[in-house]
Amino acid sequence: MAAEIFPSYPPELSQTQLSYLLQTLTDYSLSHGLTVRPAESFVSEKLSPNGSLATHAPVTLFPSPFPRSCWDEGRAVQRGYNELYARVAGNEEWLEKIMVELSEVDDFMARLHKVHLDVKAEGFVQPLSLGLFRSDYMIHVSPEDPRATPVIHQVEFNTIASSFGALSTRVSELHRHLAKMGAYPSDSIINVESIPVSPALQESAKGLAVAHKAYGSGGKGRSTAVFMIIQPGEKNVFDQRWLEYELLEKHGVQTYRISLPDVPKLTKLASGTRALIYSPPHAPNMQIEISTVYFRAGYGPGDYAGEDDWAARTTLERSRAIKCPSVITQLAGAKKIQQVLAMDGAVEKFLVDQSISSRIRSTFAAIHPLDQSPPGMAARKLALEKPDTYVLKPQREGGGNNIYRGDIPGFLKSIPESHWSGYILMELIEPPALENTIIRNGGLMSGGVIGELGVYGAILWRDGEGEERGKGLKEILMNEEAGWLLRTKGRQSDEGGVAAGFGSVDAVLLVD
């Protein structure tokens, strides 16, 4: 099957060629910021007591072949996906019914929903919302016909903390550089023209800059800036820093990094306007008005250590700052929403242009509910009796949360049946076979791999105000496809998250 989709790959290297390639890759990665903080299991606290050491991000030795038609299609539908999820977030009546049901079986979803309802009761003061989304796909080849044209099937849609945009730009530059300097065998299919550079770094920064400008001037002559909400002890700091640098150097927008525990210590809401005012610890007398709150944390229950962190999230949601995302937009990215949108007529409710809705629908994999509806009961039977071609997904982001194949029946039996409706059952996608070498923490892992293409999108929209809030978005101010990310993992690994320790950052090698 692999030979029918990809040419013989990867190229063979002599030991001398491999040593040269590895040294060049490592030097380029470290000198160009394709880096992460290493895990404690790799570098002990004794060796790095202040967490200052860094290593290059997990990367592939070779760019991975990817069908050009699949790459084109993923990029082409992204603006439609952006609008779809913005409209889902803006239609509170539709979303509310699902969230009420989900909140009964998922405490984290319930708590997020409560934050939204509490702020709604008080009244929203910011009609603008920003989404920096990412739609993830795998190549699917029909098991019945391996010679069929490969297509993309969606794995999931991310509405919060869609990471690795900056590193995706850097890794595509890395593989292009290696191709330019002749580090790959001259008789291989690897060439500079087939390795496009992902503009995800530039386009994500542009999205934040557009939101910052749309916010307008600060009150009482205050300067304005962007907040980046991060996890304490963040390991993926460089991916975030590149975005911060791009915002400052290309758009003149200052970014401040802050964790949820520091929000009550360093911020306040202005009386009346609820403008979010920040006083940096290095300049406590300075007052900076935050235009946009960009969440790179807050996507999982582990980011909320206690009530103070939930209060901090509520403060940010109450504020006049544009949220990326708002709580309601974060909820729109729940796996349950993905499953409901796969039902007949659901996408068409939000996107009336059939040419767009049908194209989006063509990227869906088979997804089933696990509730007590007739389709849900049928899916429960599949999960318990024929689980080998399915994955069970909870309402979580960040990797490491899914249950696969034969583990599904035992897991379901280990939790109350009343909680099953908090999961969705998704048919596993059948990607073509491919080989590559992953370099992580100084070690090489060669063999079969699977790639996952993530396509970024940036959208800024305006909701209704007052009684019109939640009855559908009123205006789209910006809607763009914003680059791509290829993550590659060992074929034996079900999970693909790079930060979670499962995957690597890769570059697309386009093949026709």
UniProtKB/TrEMBL annotation:
Assigned keywords, A-Z:
ATP-binding, Glutathione biosynthesis, Ligase, Magnesium, Metal-binding, Nucleotide-binding
Return the EC number.
6.3.2.3
One GO molecular function term? ATP binding
- InterPro entries membership: Glutathione_synthase, Glutathione_synthase_a-hlx, Glutathione_synthase_C_euk, Glutathione_synthase_N_euk, GSH-S_sub-bd_sf, GSH_synth_subst-bd, PreATP-grasp_dom_sf
Q: In which pathway does it act?
A: Sulfur metabolism; glutathione biosynthesis; glutathione from L-cysteine and L-glutamate: step 2/2
Which positions are annotated as binding ATP? 156, 335, 393-402, 404, 426-429, 452, 489, 495
Query: Which note does the record give on the cofactor?
Result: Binds 1 Mg(2+) ion per subunit.
Reactions listed under catalytic activity = gamma-L-glutamyl-L-cysteine + glycine + ATP = glutathione + ADP + phosphate + H(+)
> What range(s) does the Glutathione synthase substrate-binding domain occupy?
225-332
**Entry keyword Transmembrane helix:** no
Q: Cite the binding residues for Mg(2+).
A: E156, N158, E397
Enzyme class comes to: ligase
> Which cofactors are named for this entry?
Mg(2+)
Family named by the database record: Belongs to the eukaryotic GSH synthase family.
- Its protein name is Glutathione synthetase
What is the originating organism of this protein?
A: Choiromyces venosus 120613-1
Q: Give the organism's phylogenetic lineage.
A: Eukaryota, Fungi, Dikarya, Ascomycota, Pezizomycotina
